[in-house]
Amino acid sequence: MADVKENAKVWQHELNEYIRQGEPEAQEKSRAWQTAIGLQAVDGLKTSEYLNETAAKHIEGDITIEQVKELIDTYYQSKTARTPEDDEKEEADKAAANITKIINEPSFTFSLHGLTSIHKRIFTGIFKHAGILRDYEISKKEWVLDGASVSYGFAFELKGALSHDIQRERDFKYTGIDMTEIVKHIAQFTSDIWQIHPFCEGNTRTTAVFIIKYLRSLGFDVNNTTFEKNSWYFRNALVRANYQNLQKGIYKETIHLERFFRNLLMGEDNVLMNRHLHIKAKELLDGTTPTSTPTSTPTSVIPESENVKRLISAIAEKQLSVKEMMAAVGLKDRPNFIEYSLSPAMREGYVRMLYPDSPRHPRQKYLLTVKGLAAYKELSR
Predict the structure, then answer these.
(1) Percent helix, strand, coil in the chain (nearest 5)?
(2) What is the CATH number of domain 115-279?
(3) Would you state the pLDDT for residue 294?
């Protein structure tokens, strides 16, 4: 695991060097790869070392993007033994290569067809339903909503809803408004498109690429680093912008998304932290409650078990598999790790599954609960 992290750092350094010192064409390719690789994090995916090596050859001009895609196809076709991790990396590698190709192209169509075309081009060879609007209703349990779901668009009106929002944006006049208002408007438009959630899977990555292309068509020099480093925040901000529960005093908030776009378009350096997006963040991270005044000294949320403490610090704000968690805490005995670290952490409410309804999900990851994040905050002091 240490080697993987070190390789990732080296690769990131190489990308930054291409951008800083490379020829204009290499810089453009590097920025596109940064964004494309970073966007895989919205679904908890990471690209492979093979993809990184192949991307470097593309940036240096040794091979074309089409040859990159062919090499990736051949690489995974040649694998005789497959693991769930291979399936994840194959999706990430193929999607990243496809996104890179799309971002580097100057052409763009701002229309319903343009949006569905982007989804098809990103996920052809990955999803059978690439480019096809879903025909069933969906819901997704969200960590930032404490297990609740956003209300997504009805399947029977997806095409009409998308056409309406895109036409409304096409008719909008940007003249006479300052950048603050422009950012607010773009954040709201992005939120509206994403809320419809027209596809079975891959909605956030598709929305991100569509918006990047649209912003460039408006003349913006999009800072790809913001997407690269904060793609999961981007998704969680979209969730918060589209959820409300009046009974609990929770309202739709676009401010988190606006901070993201202010960094992206205005070069600001707003702190973008996922734990701040949780609907109970203020209550649980600040040690306050919205409805009562403490009558005694607040108790620490830090666990007694040293094993659980180490696991909390290792997970931090990431999503990790069992294998990745074991490597992070320096353990090799899986049964021992589960019995004395993972199980107690979950039982005591510090750690949860990304897919709680499907414990054996091939992409199962683990992340901190709000309580876990509060403990992590205390442990980090």
Answers:
(1) 60, 0, 35
(2) 1.10.3290.10
(3) 41
